[in-house]
Structures are given as C-alpha cells and as structure tokens.
Design a protein that fits this description.
The chain folds into 2 domains: 127 residues, Aspartate Aminotransferase, domain 1 (Alpha-Beta Complex), CATH 3.90.1150.10; 239 residues, Type I PLP-dependent aspartate aminotransferase-like (Major domain) (Aspartate Aminotransferase, domain 2, 3-Layer(aba) Sandwich), CATH 3.40.640.10. 40% of the residues lie in helices and 15% in strands. It has a 7-stranded mixed sheet with strand order 2-8-7-6-5-3-4, with helices on both faces. Helix 6 links the parallel strand 3 and strand 4. The mean pLDDT is 93.
C-alpha cells in the first residue's frame, strides 16, 4: 500500500486553529463569562432591522451587485466624508465585503503573489498571519517598540526586502489599544511609496478613539493613490457584528482587482442585510466613545487592582494586560480562570509569532455587558489571591 498522505494543501496544513475557538467551547460548557471577545452590548439600529425585514418579506432576496448596493456604497462614502473629510467615489472606489475579515483577505490576495512578503506589526490580530498564508504569502513580523507599543519605522525599513509587497496595519490596534499618530502613519505611507508597496489598513475601530484623540488614516494623505487599501466595518460602528458588513476603499485601479477577488470568494454580501444598512442615515451612527471610555477606565482600574500591568488603551475595544506581577503564564492562567473562576480571557500567545513572547500577556475587552463584566472581575478577585497556580518556569 502507498503511505497515507495528507489531503490538505500546505498552506492550510500550516495554519492552526484559532486559539480562542477551543477556549470558547470550554467557556460555553462551563458557563463562563466571556470578556475576551469584542462583541458589542447593543443592538443594530431599529431602522436597519426594519428595512432588512422588509427586504426579506418583499422579495429582495437574490443577488445584489457583487460590489454592493449603490445606496450602501454611497452611505459609506458619505460617512468617510463626514467623519474624515475624505472624498471617495462610491462607484469605483468602494466595495462591500462580508465583514472586514474578507476585506483583509481580498486586499492581500489582490496585491501579493505566492512567496511575497507582508510586513505585520507585532503583536497582531490573531487572524492576520493565517490570512497572509492562505494567500500563499509570507508574514514578516516587526515588533512594536517599547512599553508604549510605538510603530518603529526604522525596523519596518530594515524588514523590507525584494519580496515585500505590502504592509498590514491595524489602527486603532487590536490587541494593544494603540491609536497610531500622524507621524507614525504618514511615515509608514512614505516608506510604502518609496518602495512601491501597498499599505493595507484595517480600521474597524476608527470610531473608538478616546481622550480627545482623533483617528489617523492614510486614506486621503499625499501619496495614498494606488498605495493604500483601507478596510472598514459597519459591523462594529453599528453594533451588528453578526451581519458581517465590511468594506474596502481603494483607488479605481486597486478596486478593480479587489472586486475580481471578491467575486471569487463570496460573490457578495447578503442582500437583505445590505438593504437594511442602506436605509440608515448619519444620525444612526451613534457616538459610543464616552460610554466605552468609561468602561475602559473601569476595567483598567480593576485589572490594575488585581495585579495586572496595564497601559490604558488609546482606542479600540481591548486591554492587553501584563501578568508579570502575578508570576503567571498567560496560557495556564486563562485555562484556570475558565475552569475554576468561570471567566474567559484571551491568552497573549494568540498575538505573537513566538508563543513564548505572549506568555506574559492576556487580552480582555471592555465593551461587553457592564453587569457581567463586574461579575467577571469579582470572580477573578476571588480566584487570583489564593487560586493561581499558573507560575512561570
């Protein structure tokens, strides 16, 4: 007999399961409180639900144009103009995707060939290395610098090789909470222009920047044309994560390529849901920053009291907390918290190429239900002083 061979492609075999998936199943089995995943506490605008329901009931259930309904693309363009002062053409520069995750995959597939390299600031959102590998490209991590998690432009320059084709930047950043500033973002764009690279920016948390800061995007900056693909998410800004409403914004040339990829991945986002979002106006995009900033401050204060090392996030929905003062390995600590305290956090190992670099970090979110978060913190308080056995070494 011939030896059994794997039926999996090398690109799939090289991608592990997402680490949180197993913990989520365990958390469900034991009834743990999940303060790991960024799931917003509210509901979509009532007008969107009504319009989507009406679409279902009146026969608008077949394919929409692959690039997305024009009224929805016009809404996205109008919001970019209102919130950022950036003018984009909804006809030739906006593409609706099935969530930002598809948007990032489409962008990477559009600008890389097999073996090409994509520079990835580290720590990173857990999905990114797998997305890059699915495109048969190679992730090239570049660590963020210092305790402030700054973008090290010299390190990015040093990482550029003859195979580099793109940089993938998430801002505001998951998991660190950095909202990269003008110097960092414009400097990175300048490097991309200089080396003829594409800067892919995942800006799903653009509306969640705190303490009077403003979101900085390369979109609309000098040199952005044909060097920037911006990925956004209506799922986050409208608190409808299950609707999977994302989008890509790019020059007409890049958009033409993006749409060819998009047509061969999902064909298009669900029409009734697009109809629902298309019915909204500017007033439906509520400003939750004050609410989430208050919840951020509450979580940071209590994590510090529990012994975690915390840098207050500038944006996004997450806190990356250090476990050094607890002398705890994050993977074991997370498992113990699920099993013994009934609380789910995300292990820091999910966000680093070398798992060892993440053993001193956990990630948690401040956008979940307030009462449940308070209960989770109380469970952690009862557990940590006497129950922690996840020690280093």
């Amino acid at each position: 007999m011939k030896p059994t061979t794997s039926r999996l492609s090398r690109r799939v075999a090289g991608i592990g399961a997402m680490e949180l998936a197993g913990l989520m199943r365990l958390a469900h089995d034991v009834g743990a409180i999940d303060i790991a995943l960024g799931i917003p506490p509210g509901d979509p605008p009532a007008a969107a639900i009504a319009a989507a329901t009406a679409a279902l009931a009146t026969g608008r259930n077949q394919y929409a144009p692959p690039e997305g309904l024009l009224p929805l693309r016009q809404l996205i363009a109008a919001e970019l103009l209102r919130t950022r002062g950036v003018v984009v053409d909804p006809v030739d520069e906006v593409t609706v995707t099935c969530g930002a995750t598809e948007g990032v995959l489409d962008a990477v597939l559009t600008v890389t060939d097999p073996g090409d390299e994509v520079i990835l600031p580290e720590p990173f959102y857990e999905n990114y290395p797998g997305v890059i590998r699915l495109a048969a490209a190679v992730p090239r991590p570049v660590p963020l610098a210092g305790p402030d998690w700054r973008l090290d432009l010299d390190a990015v320059r040093a990482a550029i090789t003859g195979r580099t084709r793109a940089v993938l930047l998430n801002t505001p950043h998951n998991p660190t909470g950095r909202a990269f500033d003008e110097a960092e973002v414009s400097g990175l764009l300048d490097l991309c222009v200089e080396h003829d690279l594409v800067l892919i920016t995942d800006e799903v948390y653009e509306r969640y920047v705190y303490d009077g800061r403003r979101h900085v995007s390369p979109l609309g900056m000098p040199g952005a044309a044909n060097h920037v693909i911006t990925v956004g998410s209506l799922s986050k800004s409208l608190q409808m994560s299950g609707w999977r409403m994302g989008y890509c914004v790019a020059s007409p040339e890049l958009t033409a390529g993006l749409r060819r990829v998009h047509e061969r991945t999902t064909v298009g986002a669900a029409r009734p849901l697009q109809e629902g979002v298309s019915a909204l106006g500017a007033a439906d995009f509520t400003d939750d920053r004050a609410l989430f900033q208050e919840r951020r401050d509450h979580l940071v204060t209590h994590l510090e009291a529990l012994g975690f090392d915390v840098r207050t996030p500038e944006g996004g929905w997450f806190v990356l907390a250090g476990t050094a003062r607890l002398a705890a390995r994050s993977d074991k600590l997370v498992a113990e918290l699920v099993e013994s305290a009934g609380v789910l956090l995300a292990p820091g190992t999910s966000f680093f190429t070398d798992r060892a670099d993440g053993l001193s970090w956990v990630r948690t979110t401040f956008v979940r239900d307030r009462e449940r978060t308070v209960e989770a913190l109380e469970r952690m308080r009862r557990f940590l002083p006497t129950g922690t056995t996840a020690r280093q070494g």
